Here is the input.
Amino acid sequence: VTVLANCDSGLVQVNVAFDAAGGSFNGFKLLIDSVIVDTLNYDTSGNNSLSVLVAGDGNGHTITIQDMDDSTCVASTTVTTPNCNASPLCELNLTGKGGACDSLQQVEVELNIESINPGNEFYLFIDSTAWSGNPLAYDSSGTTTVTLTLDGDGENHLFIVQDGADSTCTDTLNLSLPACNLPCALSNLQLEPAGNGNPATHIVEVKDFEFVPKDLQVAVGDTVRWVWTGQIAHTTTSDATSGPLFWNSGLQSTGATFDLVVTEEGMHPYYCIPHGGPGGVGMSGTIVATAPCDSGLVLVQVSFEAQNGSAGGYEVKVDGSPLAGGPYPYHPSGNNQLSLELPGDGQNHQVTIADSQDSA
Here is the structure.
């Protein structure tokens, strides 16, 4: 007996197969819970099969095959059908990230809760302690964002979300916060000029529902490497549907990488197929590629490591002059990247990274 989980008007299809030898000319009866529902002829091969609709009520039902003329020639079994009236199962997916330390040595934490078939509200626990703002309401979009301000204690913390109507519908997240009582430290500053046979590799994190950085400036010949760090499968797919800069990574999950060598100048937008669309819709990003020397300027890839940077971010100075657009936010991982243009004049130029709130 095979039960198909395909509820239709409260009924479930059950496929029945049995072997018969010496059955009567008049065939057999099919009974469900001792009630005759059909009379049928035996298959001459001896191998019999049939389908029957059974109440999808989550209960056990007895299916019996009985010869029409010989009541002692019988086979019976019990099956349990799915409950067609049961509510769809609740599912929660919790992701999040912590920011940099602020002047009060605290950190802003952003939690994102993806919900499927939830109740009206949910509860948040931090290290098994209920959050003071409980209960919290779900956003009708299916994605709920909660922003918290916590002490930057340098510790790992366990975040738990639990549906208010179904206590078994939960998800957890472990998140380490920076130690805000430690001084800011910037290190391992590296500059990679484009051109001269020295292509750079640029990292784009594929997080849950965002590419980081969203917009990336590269030189022709550079490599863009997407690294999947989120918990949900995503793609990186070009808006272009043909040509040398058409690409599609396919759905990938945590730990996967995908490399693209940028061979043409211009703007190359892309998106995630399940969660975005062409033209900058939803989860999307842009690669802007320039020639190694463009109007007398050279693109330089800058990378450095940061610990305990301030919430105000960092400034970039070139030959003592602040770069427009700053201050820039620190990356939560501590590994920071940016691109800038320097004069292609064959001279030395000084690039300085400084915390916006701690000049030392």
